[in-house]
Amino acid sequence: MSKRTLALIAASLVAIFYGANYTIAKDVMPHYIQPFGFIVLRVAGAFLLFWGISFFGPKEKIARKDFIQIALASLFGVGINMLAFFEGLNLTTPISASVLMVTTPIIVLILAVIFLKEKIRILKIVGVLIGLSGTLLIILYGTGNSVTATNPTLGNFLVFVNATSYACYIIVVKKITQKYHPFTFIKWMYGIGFLFVLPFGFSQLLAMQPDLIPIDGYLKIGYVIIFTTFGTYILNIFALRELKPTTVAVFIYLQPMLASIFAIGLGKDKLDTVKIAATLLIFIGVYLVTKKPKVSD
Question: Global pTM?
């Protein structure tokens, strides 16, 4: 089996892990642990795993000035990103959350134009407007009919905040990842990220009652830490070594489909016309935003 084939399998596994995560993580919250407490567990577990694997990477020392960049990456990539996502997922449905996450490329383009002074063409502007209209549609009207969505409007908005924060992370982290080995960078990012999330989730973590959590509850918590956080990052590193970043990025578009299959199959969510319409608008927007211009343009 070629390295390219293995890389494609790795990228596919990442999409599957993320797709299942929407339903699995929602099953944990708030039955066994509240969202912010769950994030503290997730970040602490991932930090220990990444710190352990860092011994297999090169021995690098982070320059003092770069810790500011890493702290910003931690704020957007771990702190705001994860806190907003888990609280949002707790309040909305798995399908709505997965659809909103696909808006990330659109937000990255907007931020790149503002902060990196990238040029934007008319086609991309149209794509941004179409994509954001789909986002607005699902935030305002994607209430769904699932009893698990206790406050879908707020939940959808928080998932959008999560997507925006992750887009900020992509912009911030670009230079630092070119300077250090991924294992060196990620252990520090999760270490600092743990300090960000601890004040928010410490009381919820203490309120958790371990004796009342069944084995399948612990397995779901372990899934989020080992597969969704640690595993996806390692698999993405391997995929990016063999494939173009644009090829790897395409796999994010599988997440709504996979999330829908898991959620509907397990009876955790249902499709409706608003979700379908919003999905189509967002996908059209993302297509126009990521479409390569002709040479003559």
Answer: 0.85
